[in-house]
Specification:
74% helix, flat
Length: 82
Amino acid sequence: MNYDPILVAVVAAVQMLDRATDDQVDRHFAVQVQEVIGSYLSELSREDMNELRQMAARIADERSSVDPAIAAHLRRLAATTE
């Protein structure tokens, strides 16, 4: 295994919340969860955020054939600017 499963798990959770229907997850709750995740990520130093982006890009390449939706979310994370 050449990827960080913690990062993939977090991205998978965000992706699932994005795709959830109203009868699966309350939309307000989904947004709150995503805001909490974003809040914690905003505490990363500039160096750590750059490392996270690089890791996200690498994992996206590795997972693109297995989990294309997760890979797409990872690519968005990798492309995010401050």
